[in-house]
Design a protein that fits this description.
The chain is mostly helical. The protein contains two helices and no strands. The protein has one domain. The longest helix has about 100 residues. The termini are far apart. Keywords: Coiled coil. InterPro entries: LSU.
C-alpha cells in the first residue's frame, strides 16, 4: 500500500502564483537587459559612424596635402630649371665680356687668365 499525500488546491494555486511571479521577474530582467544591450548597440553604431566621418575628413585632408606637395614639387623643378638656365646665361655673358675685354687688350684671353690663376695657387 502506497502512501499518498494530498496537497490542498489552495497550496497548488499559491505555488503556481510564485512560479508565475518568478517567470515574470525573469522576463522583466531579460527585457531590461535587452534594452541595455540595444542602447549599447546604438551608441556603438554612433561611435562607428563618427569614426567613419573622421576617417573621411582625414582622407580628404591627405588628398589635398598630396596634391599640394605635387604642385610644390613641380614648381620647385621649374625654378631649378630656370635657375640653371639663368646661371648658364650669366656664365655665357661673363665669357662674352671677358672675350670683348681681351680683344681690346685690357686683359689676357680667358684661357691665359685661367692658366695664370692656376699657376698662382
Amino acid at each position: 500500500m502506497a502512501l499518498t499525500t494530498a496537497v490542498p488546491a489552495r497550496d497548488l494555486r499559491a505555488l503556481g502564483k510564485v512560479a508565475v511571479a518568478e517567470e515574470g521577474e525573469a522576463a522583466e530582467r531579460m527585457r531590461v537587459r535587452n534594452k541595455q544591450l540595444e542602447e549599447e548597440l546604438l551608441q556603438s553604431r554612433e561611435r562607428e559612424e563618427a569614426a567613419r566621418r573622421e576617417l573621411d575628413r582625414t582622407r580628404e585632408r591627405l588628398r589635398v596635402a598630396e596634391e599640394a606637395e605635387e604642385r610644390l614639387c613641380s614648381q620647385l623643378g621649374d625654378l631649378e630649371a630656370e635657375a640653371v638656365g639663368q646661371a648658364r646665361a650669366y656664365l655665357l655673358q661673363i665669357q662674352s665680356l671677358m672675350e670683348q675685354l681681351s680683344r681690346y687688350g685690357q686683359i689676357p684671353p680667358l684661357h691665359v687668365a685661367a692658366g695664370v690663376l692656376s699657376a698662382r695657387s
